[in-house]
Design goal:
With about 210 residues, this protein is an all-alpha fold. It has one domain. The protein contains ten helices and no strands. The two termini are about 20 Å apart.
């Protein structure tokens, strides 16, 4: 049941993301996809064929931290857009890098984290989830998760690309967002890079926590 729900929770929002008309909807669908990946990790929470732990619990614990901060960074970017009076549709995001560079950076890192694009930690989480599902005997769940991630990445790259397209028609907007909010959003977004660089110690900590849960 966890495998069926996990696969459906990955594929359904990924397919809907291709037609997402607002960045809020895109982020919401990305959050649903992360939930599907968490469910997919559960199928690998038992023992592999060699009787060793399949690694699903480690993937789940590591993924929860990465996913929550990626979602937080994405919504901080949306807050920045709203504070700067920029629309959240694709037309409003077009040329964002010239008009509001910080909002473009936050949005790009947040969406890239949700999509699991390398070199962010979300990419490693997807590898861990897929490998644990295969080890647990649910290769079809791993295939569904990988396919959903690829589909969602296509939708995300469309929005990120629009943010860096030259658009001289719209004026540069003033920065009205409090500096603390920008720092918090940027810290959450950069965690994806830091977590990838420190993946070894973080996975070791997740393995220690997983041993308690087994």
């Amino acid at each position: 049941m966890a495998g069926v729900l996990g696969a459906a929770a990955c594929l359904y929002p990924a397919l809907l993301s291709l037609a997402a008309g607002s960045v809020r909807r895109l982020i919401g669908l990305g959050a649903c996809l992360q939930g599907g990946l968490v469910l997919s990790a559960l199928v690998g929470s038992g023992r592999a064929s060699d009787l060793k732990p399949a690694g699903g619990v480690i993937a789940l614990l590591f993924g929860l931290v990465v996913f929550v901060l990626a979602i937080q960074a994405s919504f901080q970017a949306v807050t920045r857009l709203e504070e700067d009076g920029i629309g959240g549709d694709l037309a409003g995001v077009r040329g964002l890098a010239r008009r509001s560079p910080m909002a473009a950076v936050l949005l790009s890192l947040g969406l890239a984290g949700l999509a699991g694009l390398p070199p962010l930690a979300g990419f490693l989480v997807r590898i861990l989830v897929a490998s644990s599902a295969v080890a647990g005997g649910y290769a079809w769940v791993a295939v569904a998760g990988v396919a959903a991630s690829a589909i969602y990445a296509v939708a995300v790259l469309r929005w990120i690309g629009a943010a860096y397209v030259e658009d001289d028609e719209l004026p540069v907007v003033p920065h009205r967002t409090p500096r603390l909010a920008s720092v918090v959003g940027l810290a959450c977004a950069l965690f994806g890079v830091v977590a990838m660089l420190l993946a070894g110690p973080l996975l070791y900590a997740a393995d220690g926590a997983a041993s308690v849960l087994r």
